[in-house]
């Protein structure tokens, strides 16, 4: 048997191709007679289309032109519901909504043509804020502008208020955030009378795109094929939106009879695609004099933009995480996602939890102050423990020890000494220093019955030479999917890492393993890889060809003999939901997730009170994540997530004007650079999870949850300013500082 490979930082499967330039991204691909496509979009937030005019001396007869009337089946981008049109027909409902598609061999002439299309739109009243949506100043979706609501109840909140010594209230807001993946959105489509529709593109979820194309064209599933090309980052932004651009490319290919490539530039990508949902959270917390939580009432609202897309599931995760890793006997959470006339908001790493966790962890620092306790002491007195129940009444069976994580994080960061030192130094300096933390959890996998509904599958096959191929719909987008799948298969089979090959996600070849989202790839799909590998191994054992204690040459010989005698050597496994996990969708209670990652993050900041500039000087991230499969990749996930969280907290401010992002350039949408990111010190606690591959849990989204509140709490410690909204830009902080010292 081969050496243990789980827990080793083996080289990335695709690393050599990426650094040598052999990796092929969608814009690297060409096909014979391929032409280029673009989208003509609405310039207004809401209105009735009165006409489409093709002007400007353009040779329009040379162009392929597609409007809603050309769509062969249903005009929708199928996802949870079918409310979003592929192309606007009679009405437009947000700025940048697609109305017309153009294609031509000359992409420079194509850009001129795009500017020469005039869409005559009669404006209609629009709404742009959560308050206006809830007030129904205009009804723009269904009967009440509400996409989805949830209600969580634990205990008796109403009767608890009278027993509280302190009641603390607060309202918190988070802004939109752009995913800002390094490679913009792109697709190539080819339509063939015999083969059907094939698309190649930069995407996270091939079977989402497949579903959308089936509905758009009304074709049988086997006549739609989706192939993932090398993908330069996604962070959720390539979960649902690639379905839109794939539909557009495919419509142009269908009408032109030629392959069509659509590649967004950065400006179009930022203006037209999904963002993190803006949020507003209201907290009311009852607490005893000795710092024990009695009641938590939380009202959580997301701005979903104008179509539903993934807002219900983003809302779901944000709702479940809103009460954090705490034991509170009485909890009520009401949540809703509302419609506004902005482009639809969608998936972004963390999926609703960063919004609700920011509000909770900022609020608890304020609760601690009201009670007269140190922030860390308040958390210690209320941390959830094994055998206790979270807000959704899920009893924790993991050996969680949040107190230990807190102690380790505070010790590694020098928290106590710095709190004391900064308090003294801040009295005589314009540069104020502060240190703060956040404690949090993040569930791995789809919520509740979601994994059971997905029924994900993974296949594995062996060749006559003893090489093993993993067939899964999970995508590699820089986070390490291919590497950890290979490590899991190699460890299970006792083979060398180099003997494992991960097939390119292609719906004509690989089964549906579910979307590459929700911190599920390692824990859920990785477990299926492990099971499929074990099934192949057991097949060889049962045949008598392979014996226990085999080596890599023995395995290769056994594969050759088995295939020569029986034909193919392969396995297909399907997710089976654990029988002891139960979720009540109607009452929103029960086992929300099979496992959680647990964490405490500590941020140290400096604030120049003359300019209100904030710098993160040090960052400590301590987390319990089950078994770490690849330490370098795992640390990279945490470091990258913290960097994005710093942007969420301080820099990344989407400026809206009547539903349109008006700072959609990297010159004025500010993200942290290497000069803005401090040393990020990452530490793992490993308590293996029995249902994860080799004991692993999910970690991809975790670091986005705790970074912003830790930074906000540090700013509050440094300045005495009450931080209620992020990002904390210099402009907003300066205003707060002036109000404090007025």
Structure in words:
By secondary structure, this protein is α+β, with helices and mostly antiparallel strands. The longest helix has 23 residues, at 521-543. The mean pLDDT is 97. The protein has 3 domains: 15-23 and 450-574, Aldehyde Oxidoreductase, domain 4, CATH 3.30.365; 31-124 and 180-272, Aldehyde oxidase/xanthine dehydrogenase, molybdopterin binding domain (Aldehyde Oxidoreductase, domain 4, 2-Layer Sandwich), CATH 3.30.365; 279-447 and 586-741, 2-Layer Sandwich (Aldehyde Oxidoreductase, domain 4).
List keywords for this structure.
Aldehyde Oxidoreductase, domain 4; 3 domains; 742 residues; 19 helices; 24% strand; 30% helix; alpha+beta; seven-stranded mixed β-sheet; six-stranded mixed β-sheet
Write the layout of secondary structure elements.
Elements: H1 15-20, E1 35-41, E2 47-54, E3 64-66, E4 91-92, E5 98-104, H2 107-116, E6 117-123, H3 130-134, E7 146-154, H4 157-160, E8 166-174, E9 186-192, E10 196-201, H5 206-217, E11 224-228, H6 241-256, E12 260-263, H7 266-272, E13 279-287, E14 293-303, H8 311-320, E15 330-338, H9 353-371, H10 375-380, H11 402-413, H12 415-425, E16 431-444, H13 450-454, E17 457-462, E18 468-471, H14 481-493, E19 500-502, H15 521-543, H16 552-566, E20 569-574, E21 583-584, E22 589-590, E23 595-608, E24 613-624, H17 631-651, E25 656-657, E26 660-661, E27 680-685, H18 702-719, E28 725-726, H19 730-741
Parallel strand pairs: 1-12, 8-28, 10-11, 14-15, 18-19, 24-27
Antiparallel strand pairs: 1-5, 2-4, 2-6, 3-5, 7-15, 8-13, 9-10, 9-12, 13-14, 16-23, 17-18, 17-20, 21-22, 23-24, 25-26
